[in-house]
């Protein structure tokens, strides 16, 4: 009976040899349930010996136990539902967190790629300037050699 699922139990009601006490087997009852069951439902029901009111008391006891079992089952179902809802909430938070992290990673990758492309552009421009400088250097050296020949 522990955990989130509902379970079924066999509950038996038996009378002792004098038929003064009803024995309920297979049910655990809290102190508060036992105290409530001890409360007299009517003053005359207590004073009479095992007569027709005794049968009514058995029926009342069975009814009270069934109600308590139903309340306990409802409480367990409610707790299980709370756990499921909390689990769903945690899952949504995890998914949301993962989405934020994924977006941040994608932004960083895009920024890194942009920086890489910018560096490549600057490298090509630098190579182009270097080629121009070498062409100018070769031209001026050639001009200088001509002037020296004259």
Give structural notes:
The protein is mainly alpha-helical and 150 residues long. It has a domain at 59-149. The chain has three helices and two strands; from the N terminus they run ββααα. The chain has helices at 31-38, 43-47, 52-149, and strands at 12-15, 22-25. A two-stranded antiparallel ribbon has the order 1-2. A hairpin with a 6-residue loop joins β1 and β2. The radius of gyration is 45 Å and the shape is rod-shaped. Residues 42-52 have low confidence and may be disordered.
Low-confidence stretches: 42-52
Given helix and strand content, the structural type is: mainly alpha
Oligomer: single chain
Q: What is the alpha-carbon Rg in Å?
A: 45 Å
The percentage helix is: over 70%
Q: How would you spell out the order of helices and strands?
A: EEHHH
Q: Determine the number of helices (DSSP H or I, runs of at least 4 residues).
A: 3
Which word captures the global form?
Answer: rod-shaped
Q: What strand line-up does the widest sheet have?
A: 1-2
Percent of sequence in beta strands? 5-15%
Attribute tags:
mainly alpha; rod-shaped; 74% helix; single chain; 150 residues
Would you summarize the structure shown here?
With 150 residues, the protein is mainly alpha-helical.
Layout of SSEs?
Blueprint: E1 12-15, E2 22-25, H1 31-38, H2 43-47, H3 52-149
Antiparallel strand pairs: 1-2
């Amino acid at each position: 009976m522990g955990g989130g699922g509902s379970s079924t139990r066999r509950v038996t009601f038996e009378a002792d040899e004098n038929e003064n006490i009803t024995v309920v087997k297979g049910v655990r009852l809290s102190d508060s349930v036992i105290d409530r069951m001890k409360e007299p439902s009517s003053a005359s029901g207590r004073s009479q010996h095992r007569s027709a009111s005794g049968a009514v008391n058995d029926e009342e006891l069975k009814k009270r136990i069934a109600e308590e079992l139903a309340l306990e089952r409802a409480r367990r179902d409610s707790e299980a539902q709370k756990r499921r809802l909390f689990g769903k909430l945690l899952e949504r938070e995890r998914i949301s967190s993962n989405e934020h992290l994924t977006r941040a990673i994608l932004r960083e990758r895009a920024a890194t790629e942009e920086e890489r492309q910018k560096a490549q552009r600057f490298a090509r421009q630098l190579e182009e300037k270097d080629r121009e400088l070498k062409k100018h250097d070769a031209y001026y050296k050639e001009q200088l050699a001509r002037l020296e020949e004259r």
